[in-house]
Amino acid sequence: MKKSSILFILILVTAIMQAQERKQPIPGKPPVVNIKKPQTFLLENGLKVMIVENHKLPKVTFNLTIDNPPFAEGEKKGVDELCSNLIGNGSSKISKEDFNEEIDFMGANISFSSNSAYGSSLSKFSKRTLELLAYGALDPNFTQEELEKEKAKAIEGLRSQEKSVSSIANRLVNALAYGKNHPSGEFMTEESISKITLEDIIKNYNTNFVPQNAYLAIVGDVKYEEIKPIVEQLFGSWKRTNTNKTIYPDPGNVATTQINFIDVPNAVQSEISLVNTYKLKMNDKDFFPAVIASYILGGGFNSYLNMNLREAHGWTYGASTNIGAGKYVTSIRSASAVKNNVTDSAVVEFIKEIKKIRTEKVTTEQLDNAKAGYIGRFVMKAEKPESVARYALNIETEDLPADFYENYIKTINAVTKEDVMNAANKYFLIDNSRIIIVGKGKEVIPGLEKLNIPIFYFDKYGNPVEKPVF
């Protein structure tokens, strides 16, 4: 035997012996994350300012957030979205062209919406960046010309989505789950957009862009004693306005599971969504168990739903579950787009996997992997300025304990298999779910009717209709 062959065999045997002796690495201690606490002050108009000094890099970010409760717009749905698009198109204190030119010169980034404003720049430009942000947010220049442009773009966008199965599904999932008169359920139409006037935009801004519900988070290479007087000068004149809070009844889940079907004859696949509504606050003891249960059900590649519908059956490119949380009523939605000829079979598998997580404890490996994923993402985000600002804002607006994020990792690690199952039973209400399907009725209804689940029919705008004649 040649020497080279003997050497190869020896190397191979050594590698096999080493592989056999290898042991699973022992997990290290959980990482320690240092979440910096903001220094705060309150302006007379109600604006709360939070400043976190971080001098590692010569950068600074500004996050202005207005924490208004949801509100419905009725027959003029779209006012708030158009208002978002119009804010930042110039100011009464500086033209749109000069505004954009200065931002480009500084290499800064500034953006606006109807309930927020964001800015970031090098710290040497921090004062001017904050000035421009204040000009755009507090002194917007709304014009009829810009409004007409935005209305035309909005209508064109709606027309382009007219035959999109996924767009119709996204619109109707909320409309059916919350109700079309609820802030989370109403949607824009060409008719509602055409009714919007410039006066509606200005009224929306004056009513809702108010300081008493606002928070300004400043994170980065700034000094508290230097930035505080600048904030007072720029935002101190922002006038407080009395606002009315409308209380909306919480939408209820259906008494028994039902299918809500929307016929789209050109659909080549079916959009399936299983939806429940509920309230889940971030300070609830169920919060972490619920989000971990959601992740195991449909939050990752190895989730129950994805491994079933995609890997085992090959019916879809992916299946997922998204869970909401916050002060107001929210929802959990498990969804996928599948081939027409397996729509009924996919519904059966959705129900099977949701029942599984409600009745069978997750494995140690599944629980550990879910925890590791959340902890890893938290650690990666914790040092980013936008995350620090978000954490500070959440503590204020979500009524969280001051040490919520300091205990984040410990709280996740404390979640047990029993906690996950209990949360799944509390929030994944499969016996009271709307199964919303948008698809080609001619091909999928015969199979769905064999499931013995009540079927109710709706048009593309969420109005009840009789069963179509296919």
Automatic annotation (TrEMBL):
It comes from Flavobacterium flevense. InterPro entries: Metalloenz_LuxS/M16, MPP/UQCRC_Complex, Pept_M16_N, Peptidase_M16_C. Keywords: Signal. This is Peptidase M16. Residues 49-182 form the Peptidase M16 N-terminal domain. It holds the Pfam family Peptidase_M16_C. The keyword Signal applies. Residues 1-19 form the signal peptide. PANTHER family: METALLOPROTEASE, PROCESSING PROTEASE. Residues 195-373 form the Peptidase M16 C-terminal domain. One of its GO terms (molecular function) is metal ion binding. The lineage of its organism: Bacteria, Pseudomonadati, Bacteroidota, Flavobacteriia, Flavobacteriales.
